[in-house]
Amino acid sequence: MKKVLIANRGEIARRVIRTLHRLNIESVAVYSDADANAPFVLEADEAVHIGASPSAESYLVQDRILEAAKATGADGIHPGYGFLSENSEFSEKVKAAGITFIGPSAHAMELMGDKLSAKQAVKEFDVPLVPGIDKAVSDFDEALDVAKKIGFPVLIKASAGGGGKGMRLVEREEDLIEQMQLAQSEARSSFGDDAVFVEKFVTKPRHIEIQVFADSHGNTVHLFERECSIQRRHQKVIEEAPSAVLTPEIREKMGQAAINVAKACNYEGAGTVEFLIDADLNFYFLEMNTRLQVEHPVTEEITGLDLVEWQIRVARGEELPLKQEEIKMKGHAVEVRVYAEDALNNFAPDIGTLRRYRKPSFDWVRVDDAFEEGMEIPIYYDPMIAKLVTYGEDRAQSIERMIKAIDNYEISGLRTTLDFGKYVMKHNAFTSGNFDTNFVKHYFEVPSVMKGAQKEEEKALIAGINKIWDRLKEREKEEFAVQPVR
């Protein structure tokens, strides 16, 4: 593989380009109108314009991406995450064009992309499942019968869903019909498929995922877990590795279960097996993401491995670089996703211009970002500015370093989730490890709590602003002072 096209944008495109450059593989970027001057476009060896700003007219247009690959002579395509990364039709087209798709097979994508088919596949490998039904239901009486058997509360979930779409919590029998109709409607509009199923709602759930890798030679390994329980709108905001609650015994069992999931679909490449864990540390298979994850940096930090490099090696037909017993975990890493969002306004997008943008620069901090000072955050895509990652010898140190990194990350011109990240880092529920996916609901439903926690910082900020203002006034006096006539 001598030249790889990245069918994506932003920070993940930059991330892939870095590894390609290190491996002496040429890189090709594709870009929309909105991204014409983006850093990833300038950093690639070649760049091809593929359309207007909306993703439906650029990053999701399969034929234009394939045309760009052919025109530049790319012999590999890395899909990143999002957009076409889990599109089986696209991977088949790439293969038919004689280009290597750096990801799993279309069969694995299709099998794991549908939650019901995934449940049925992994059941044969003794992977624990959340109590419920593993087939689509459309009849309300049947859904009610299942709900009564497993007991309320239950979840109605879209079979083809993700990101919390097409999912409804039902706590009472009388609400089932209405919530099922809402879930079906949302699933139909979001995924073109209104199939839903019913499963038990796990109380105090933690969201823990296992990174897996498999090659074409029959080797499959796991690279330990990531804790992803701090979420808003069912989407992750903060991740860490390893989890604060897993024992070595549970970690080993979950790792083996994740490997079994990969084997259930003859998987190749990087994948992530997601589990729910209840208050008693029982774990249940949730789904498999057939791509690299946004939060992969925390795994890289604790293992010292380059997951993009592993993807490329597997795609070239090589064996995995390490066997399971050779993969070691050291230290602790935390990641805060820096979104252009107003955490005090229900995390609403706050698109604008990065008037000031200064990243923290410490040996133990990593920033995977997409923008530079003066750039606008486009309205067309996910509003993530960067991923801020800190590494420490243990969890306490990585959290302490994250607070320092946030304090030294200067962003003005729009609101971000940095303050929320700091609030979480300093909250007793997080530092103690006693939290679940309801953190925002339990501790952040009234955002004024964060304002209260920041009173000292606000005072310091006001004092700093006043000092700057005084300096400006002094400078103004000097500049406009009457000069003696010579």
TrEMBL record:
Residues 119-316 form the ATP-grasp domain. GO terms for molecular function: ATP binding; ligase activity; metal ion binding. SUPFAM superfamilies: Glutathione synthetase ATP-binding domain-like, PreATP-grasp domain, Rudiment single hybrid motif. SMART domains: Biotin_carb_C. The keyword Phosphoprotein does not apply. Keywords: ATP-binding, Biotin, Ligase, Magnesium, Metal-binding, Nucleotide-binding. InterPro entries: ATP-grasp, BC-like_N, Biotin_carboxylase_complex, Biotin_carboxylation_dom, Biotin_COase_C, CPAse_ATP-bd, PreATP-grasp_dom_sf, Rudment_hybrid_motif. This is Propionyl-CoA carboxylase alpha chain. It comes from Lishizhenia tianjinensis. Residues 1-445 form the Biotin carboxylation domain.
